[in-house]
Amino acid sequence: MKVRRIAIVGAASTGKTWLKDALKSVLTLRGNTVSDISHRGSSQNSNINAVQVWTISDNTALMTAVENHLHFEDEPLAAVAQAHRDLYDITLVMGLDWPQSSTALQSDGHVMRSTVDSALRQTLSQSGLAYKVIYGQGHQRLNHALLALGLAGEDNLARQIREQGQFAINQGRTQWQCNECSDPECEHKLFTSLLGDRPN
């Protein structure tokens, strides 16, 4: 069975991990096997009975090389880009419209995000690597990524089914990471604020 290999790249605080987790959830619900891909190109947990096998990585050698090149100017970007071409079938670049944390903004993160984004796109273009830029917030961003992969987006029912799986987070069965959340009115924040207002 053919494995489709996705690389999610972009500057810091652009929703790479959020999108990886959201895509994994949707693809799994659709009967696919999804796993991470290593820099050596090996995938894990392949299921021969799956509709499709996907590997998704938001931690790529190319992203590390671009950032190192900006800081130290000693990274052989052409060689790393060639390796990236051999390792991944599809490259999704995260748009800069993803909200940044207040900490990142205070450290001049917006300027650095733009610099990294420009360097990344320049590297991809100069190396002849095709890529698609993904914009939007939350469900919209996920749908744009699905369409970029040639897949159908989520309808409202499918979205509700996927989001119901997040209830386990609010009930403490899995770890919540607010820094990966794009919804300022998310249920986790509402839930915790209500708990904080309860009288002892």
What's this entry about, in short?
With 200 residues, the protein is of the alpha/beta class.
Q: How many angstroms separate the termini?
A: 57 Å
Shape: globular
Helical stretch count? 9
Major beta-sheet overview: 5 strands, parallel
Low-confidence stretches: 40-46, 179-185
* SSE pattern, N- to C-terminal: EHEEHHEHHEHHHH
User: Superfamily at the CATH H level of the largest domain?
Assistant: P-loop containing nucleotide triphosphate hydrolases
List the quaternary state of the chains: single chain
Portion in strands: 5-15%
Q: How many beta-strand segments?
A: 5
What's the mean pLDDT score?
79
Under the CATH scheme, which architecture of the largest domain would be assigned?
A: 3-Layer(aba) Sandwich
The CATH topology of the largest domain is what? Rossmann fold
How much helical structure, as a percent, in the residues?
40-55%
Radius of gyration: 18 Å
Give an overview in words.
- Helices cover 47% and strands 12% of the residues.
- With 200 residues, it is an alpha/beta fold.
- The protein folds into two domains: 3-148, Rossmann fold (3-Layer(aba) Sandwich), CATH 3.40.50.300; 166-197, no CATH class.
- The protein has a five-stranded parallel beta sheet, covered by helices on one side.
- The longest helix has 18 residues, at 109-126.
- The model is unreliable at 40-46 and 179-185 (pLDDT under 50).
Helices and strands, with pairings:
Layout: E1 3-9, H1 16-29, E2 33-35, E3 53-57, H2 61-72, H3 77-87, E4 90-94, H4 102-106, H5 109-126, E5 132-134, H6 139-148, H7 156-164, H8 167-170, H9 187-197
Parallel strand pairs: 1-3, 1-4, 2-3, 4-5
Helix pairs in contact: 2-3, 2-5
